[in-house]
Design brief:
The protein is built from 3 helices and 3 strands; from the N terminus they run αααβββ. The chain has 132 residues and is of the alpha+beta class. A hairpin with a 7-residue loop joins strand 2 and strand 3. The relative contact order is 0.16. The mean pLDDT is 84.
Length: 132
């Protein structure tokens, strides 16, 4: 009859040593891919939120002044620098009843080798100030 090792525990066969580390290394690329996908999704949501903020600021300023250039400047000032550099503004309206500002922001990529994930378009419409 064979006696168990010290403390009544059986020893694992020597061929299984380090197998957990090898399995973890095999699973690590999938974990990194899921983490990068989560970061990419958050980046896209942040760009969309910032585009909406820029559109509202540009429309608000465009409704108060007659210069579309000033509206685009106000839209860029309302968002973070990296979003402002990627944003394109189109402000139409006043003189008239309303002004519409459309902002297009390209979404950057966190994945190597992929340039971007396309643009985000957001619009905002405001009534023109009566003095315009």
């Amino acid at each position: 009859m064979r006696r168990p090792g010290a403390g009544g525990r059986r020893r694992a066969p020597r061929g299984d040593r380090g197998s957990a580390a090898v399995e973890y290394l095999g699973f690590l690329p999938l974990l990194l891919l899921v983490a990068l996908a989560g970061v990419q999704l958050g980046l896209a949501a942040y760009a969309a939120q910032q585009a909406g903020t820029a559109a509202r600021a540009a429309a608000r300023t465009g409704a108060q002044t007659e210069r579309a250039h000033g509206a685009a400047q106000a839209g860029k000032a309302a968002v973070s620098d990296w979003v402002g550099k990627r944003a394109d503004f189109d402000v139409e309206g006043c003189p008239g009843a309303t002004v519409t500002a459309t902002v297009t922001v390209s979404i950057p990529s966190v994945f190597p080798g992929i340039d971007h994930f396309g643009p985000v378009h957001k619009s905002a419409t405001m009534p023109c100030d009566e003095s315009n």
